[in-house]
């Protein structure tokens, strides 16, 4: 892509576009105070459905990922090119890593697609948040592109998907009665107290998993914005680097914990495990 | 005191107290990891991702405090 003439022209064109958009954004930017919004801003209404900037950005990124994946799928070669090599490396490494947690090829086959898709999506949305000039693109004085993971509703949805899948897996492996016995157990006072602790810890899982990702990404954005306000161009650089690092690590940690939750649910709960967890 | 100043103090105290625990925890992780690498330098490449992951998990309590204080300030 970088070697052909048309490729170079494309990159040049994108750079010019970004420069113009940044300039226009600077022209429009309010001259005082850091403006940070906890909730995503509404771009326009589609009937009664509010289309927010994170939703818009998320749809675009999903389309990009889907098109890339389909393109890779239909241009698979025996001798892989550079891009296919990178994708193969990622998928193979990820699958091997999930294998070390599950210790079971069959389980890996079932868990891996979900977890790896989440990892890729979180990673790509986080990294696109650092696209230079993207924050300056406006529509009706609302930033068009905002980091998707800085929208709590989206992170909560992903967490709920994982937790619900873990519970379904637990019901399937232990049977409905074994599943209920884990939470409500009258065999002894100690087991009853542990069952209640188990219920609380299920809710704690949802909050800790979702707040970890959301907090890191949102805090990174706010930190960069505050530093940009204090001293433009140079002071934010180390914080942006920190945000880059944490966005990658959080994508990894989120999918790792998802794998661990689902794997833990898929193991048969014996009486010893009940005491341990 | 005015409401605004109480809010600012609350936000400051939240993050200040909330960061203590995770700071100590991360320091312990780093110290133990250094110790392990010092004893057995070959393990470094295996240990590095684990250090990052455990640090990210330890950091989460501080992140909760940060989220709360950001909500107090901006929300």
Polypeptide structure, described:
- The complex is a heterodimer of chains A (277) and B (75).
- Chain A has 277 residues and is mainly α.
- In chain A, 73% of the residues lie in helices and 5% in strands.
- Chain A is built from eight helices and four strands; from the N terminus they run αββαααββαααα.
- Chain A has a two-stranded antiparallel sheet.
- In chain A, β3 and β4 form a beta hairpin.
- In chain A, α4 packs antiparallel against α7 (236-266).
- The longest helix of chain A has 42 residues, at 189-230.
- Mean pLDDT of chain A is 82; it is low at 271-277.
- Chain B has helices spanning 3-39, 44-74.
- Chain B is elongated and about 60 Å long.
- Chain B has two helices and no strands.
- Chain B has 75 residues and is mostly helical.
- Chain A binds chain B through residues 36-38, 208, 211-212, 214-216, 218-219, 222, 246, 249-250, 252-253, 256, and chain B through 52-53, 56-57, 59-60, 63-64, 66-67, 70-71, 74-75.
């Amino acid at each position: 892509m970088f070697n052909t003439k048309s490729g170079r022209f494309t990159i040049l064109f994108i750079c010019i576009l970004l420069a113009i958009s940044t300039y226009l954004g600077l022209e429009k930017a309010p001259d005082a105070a850091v403006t940070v919004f906890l909730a995503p801003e509404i771009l326009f209404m589609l009937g009664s459905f509010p289309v927010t900037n994170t939703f818009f950005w998320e749809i675009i990124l999903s389309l990009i990922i889907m098109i890339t994946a389909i393109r890779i799928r239909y241009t698979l070669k025996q001798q892989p090119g550079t891009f296919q090599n990178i994708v193969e490396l990622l998928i193979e490494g990820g699958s091997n890593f999930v294998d070390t947690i599950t210790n079971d090829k069959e389980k890996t086959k079932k868990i891996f697609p979900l977890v790896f898709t989440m990892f890729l999506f979180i990673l790509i949305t986080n990294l696109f948040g650092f696209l230079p000039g993207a924050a300056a693109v406006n529509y009706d004085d609302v930033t068009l592109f905002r980091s998707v993971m800085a929208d709590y509703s989206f992170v909560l949805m992903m967490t709920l998907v994982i937790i619900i899948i873990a519970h379904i897996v637990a019901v399937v492996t232990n049977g409905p009665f074994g599943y209920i016995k884990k939470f409500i157990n009258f065999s002894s006072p100690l087991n009853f107290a542990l069952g209640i602790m188990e219920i609380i810890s299920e809710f704690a899982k949802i909050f800790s998993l979702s707040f970890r990702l959301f907090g890191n990404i949102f805090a990174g954005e706010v930190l960069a914005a505050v530093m940009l306000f204090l001293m433009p161009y140079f002071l934010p650089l180390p914080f942006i680097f920190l945000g880059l690092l944490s966005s990658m690590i959080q994508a990894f940690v989120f999918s790792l914990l998802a794998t661990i939750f689902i794997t833990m649910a898929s193991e048969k709960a014996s009486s010893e495990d009940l005491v341990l967890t | 005191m005015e409401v605004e100043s109480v809010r600012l103090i609350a936000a400051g105290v939240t993050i200040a107290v909330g960061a203590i625990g995770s700071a100590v925890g991360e320091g312990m992780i780093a110290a133990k990891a250094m110790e392990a690498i010092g004893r057995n330098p070959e393990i470094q490449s295996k240990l590095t991702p684990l250090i990052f992951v455990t640090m990210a998990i330890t950091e989460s309590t501080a992140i909760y405090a940060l989220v709360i204080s950001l909500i107090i300030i901006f929300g």
